[in-house]
UniProtKB/TrEMBL annotation:
Keyword annotations of the record: ATP-binding, Coenzyme A biosynthesis, Cytoplasm, Kinase, Nucleotide-binding, Transferase
Database matches in SUPFAM superfamilies: P-loop containing nucleoside triphosphate hydrolases (SSF52540)
Gene from which this protein is expressed: coaE
Protein name: Dephospho-CoA kinase
Compartment list: Cytoplasm
Length: 198
């Protein structure tokens, strides 16, 4: 299976671009969605999280309170390590299952931490969604209803724009109008179709 790894920092527009590829009939494996699935209500992972962190990280409907969990691990290295050791193997395993099950000519693998976790080495092509950091902050803040300070903390924990661009095979500049971004997706789609046939 020909795998295109798509990445970009917070607020860069990964989901928007992935949706465009989906419209072209391409299967998308999204790390964030997989991460949600592995901690779905009644899942073993969620039960372990509840046991470790207590009921404060569980919402009344039995689902994970992501904000509370984020807050709990943000400044606690030991708890973050425990959480990562629990979730990373489960997420990784499920992503491999979904990548293998993909039936489109190539598969789009959307991973926010593609560079940080060195997963780009497992992709045939790396597509980076890029835009200026100031624009990224404003988009992320308006979307997630978080303060610029919170967004800056997330940015500081992610790979820099330069680090992402250094491993990119292809780049979409998402600071432009959506119509131009869509046109880029169509062009890349044709390129990936050709590459996936070799």
């Amino acid at each position: 299976m020909f795998v295109v790894g798509l990445t970009g920092g917070i607020g860069s527009g990964k989901s928007t671009v992935a949706a465009e590829f989906q419209r072209q009939g391409i299967d998308v494996v999204d790390a964030d969605l997989v991460a949600r699935d592995v901690v779905a209500p009644n899942s073993q992972a969620l039960q372990q999280i509840q046991y470790y962190f207590g009921d404060s990280v569980i919402l009344t409907d039995g689902s994970l309170d992501r904000a509370a969990l984020r807050a709990a691990v943000f400044n606690n290295e030991q708890q973050r390590r425990w959480l990562n050791q629990l979730l990373h193997p489960l997420i990784s395993q499920e992503m491999q299952v979904q990548l293998k099950a993909a039936s489109s000519p190539y598969v789009l693998w959307v991973v926010p931490l593609l560079v940080e976790n060195k997963l780009y080495q497992q992709a045939d092509r790396v597509l980076v969604i890029d835009l200026p950091v100031e624009q990224q902050k404003l988009r992320a803040a308006s979307r997630d209803r978080q303060s610029i300070a919170q967004i800056e903390q997330v940015l500081a924990s992610q790979a820099s724009r330069q680090q992402r661009l250094a491993v990119a095979d292809d780049v979409i500049d998402n600071s432009r109008p959506l119509s131009e971004v869509k046109s880029d997706v169509s062009t890349l789609h044709q390129r990936y179709l050709k590459l996936s046939q070799h």
